[in-house]
Design goal:
The protein has 207 residues and is of the alpha/beta class. It has helices at 31-44, 59-70, 118-131, 155-160, 166-181, 189-206; strands at residues 17-21, 51-57, 78-82, 110-117. 39% of the residues lie in helices and 12% in strands.
Length: 207
């Protein structure tokens, strides 16, 4: 098989992590660390045999994607595009369990795509550094609003507040994005609590 495989069957190989690096803000970004983080998260959420795709983009591509998908004409930190719908009937309205593919076709075993705007993440790091009066290596006076950064002081958002390295933040954002791929969201208060609690559990596990 060239693609992902059914989960829960002993001996099935792990899914493939595909990374498309279309950004120029961080030269030599550590794609191996990104892939390793996704593999760890996939195993923790029970979908390690499914494929995942990550696109690392600049502002304009993210702005266009955000406008097309959400009607918001500005970049954000991360967007997730699930391939499957949550199986709410099977798991009593709790997120984290997807509908199994109707047909056993290899390329159906994919969680979906995540798009990460690298310059956006850099700017948010810079803003936090400036807020503390620290020195920094980035020179960008733009300030964006949106994405994970506005989701409160828990979960990935809260954990990133103490992280100044954009590559580390990107890997933390993967936790948020991967949970969206398996049906978590943060629209309603109870859904937000469920999601940030799961984020905190995963962040603790992956270090």
């Amino acid at each position: 098989r060239l693609f992902g495989t059914k989960r829960g069957i002993q001996g099935n190989p792990p899914g493939c992590v595909s990374i498309y690096n279309d950004q120029k803000s961080i030269k030599g970004i550590n794609e191996d660390a990104i892939s390793d983080t996704i593999s760890k998260i996939s195993k923790l959420i029970g979908y390690d045999t499914y494929d995942v795709t990550v696109l690392l983009v600049d502002d304009e591509e993210m702005r266009e994607t955000n406008l097309e998908s959400r009607g918001i004409d500005s970049p954000t930190d991360i967007l997730s595009f699930p391939f499957h719908q949550p199986n709410f009937t099977a798991n009593d309205n709790e997120a984290g369990l997807l509908e199994e593919p109707e047909f056993d076709i290899p390329d159906y075993y994919t969680l979906g795509d995540m798009v990460i705007c690298v310059p956006y993440v850099i700017r948010r790091c810079q803003e936090d550094i400036l807020a503390l009066g620290d020195d920094n290596d980035y020179d960008d006076d733009e300030s964006d609003v949106g994405g994970v950064e506005n989701d409160g002081d828990r979960g990935v958002c809260g954990a990133m507040a103490d992280v100044r390295d954009p590559e580390k933040r990107i890997r933390m954002l993967l936790v948020h994005g991967m949970l969206h791929l398996v049906g978590y969201d943060h629209i309603e208060d109870e859904d937000y609590i469920e999601m940030v609690e799961r984020e905190e559990e995963i962040l603790k596990e992956i270090g």
